[in-house]
Write a structure and sequence with these properties.
about 180 residues; two-stranded parallel ribbon; alpha/beta; Double Stranded RNA Binding Domain; Arc Repressor Mutant, subunit A; 2 domains; single chain
């Protein structure tokens, strides 16, 4: 059984989804990849896991690195899971590139190279935004590239984490918006 709850945030409504034990989804209301279809058949509920997630979000939106632990459960392909595990290793307020993640995966798999574009696809389909920090991944040239919750939110999340924005660029055209 799946459960959900919608919560307010400084950046707009967020949907939380759980299997009753762990958080399985967290996305903004107008996310490109997640929405009503991902809670179809789920029951609206107030669960302890949602209270934990809300406490985490409250700390985060107050501009602090959250210390609250939230049990997470990610489900995806083996490749997506590998990418999402690496996202969880990105420290608060730090950035990595898609290429950095591709190099790590190539090393883990024992191959010469891995596609940064394939990494981008997995990053873009992260079902637990913010907590699994896909917003901390940028292009090799400092471009903020895309963000399922909207480019303006990616900028705001990085500003909350006090990331130095002066060397980063926001795309003005293309699919990254």
């Amino acid at each position: 059984m799946l459960y959900y709850k919608k919560v307010a945030s400084p950046l707009g409504e967020i949907t939380l989804r759980s299997d009753g034990e762990a958080l399985t989804g967290l996305w903004f209301a107008d996310d490109k990849h997640y929405g009503a279809k991902d809670i179809a058949g789920a029951a609206l509920a107030d669960l302890d896991i949602f209270a934990q997630a809300e406490a985490w979000l409250a700390e985060y939106f107050a501009g602090r690195e959250p210390k609250v632990s939230v049990p997470l459960k990610l489900q995806g392909s083996e490749f997506q899971m590998q990418v999402w595990r690496l996202l969880q290793d990105i420290p608060y307020g730090r950035l990595v590139t898609y290429g950095d993640i591709a190099k790590k995966i190539a090393a883990q798999k024992g191959v010469v190279r891995m596609s940064a574009q394939a990494v981008g696809g997995a990053v873009g389909h992260n079902p637990l935004c913010i907590i699994v920090p896909c917003h901390r991944v940028v292009g090799a040239n400092g471009s903020l590239t895309g963000y399922g919750g909207g480019m303006w939110r990616k900028v705001r999340l990085l500003e909350l984490e006090k990331v130095a924005m002066s060397k980063l660029t926001v795309p003005t055209k293309g699919t990254a918006l």
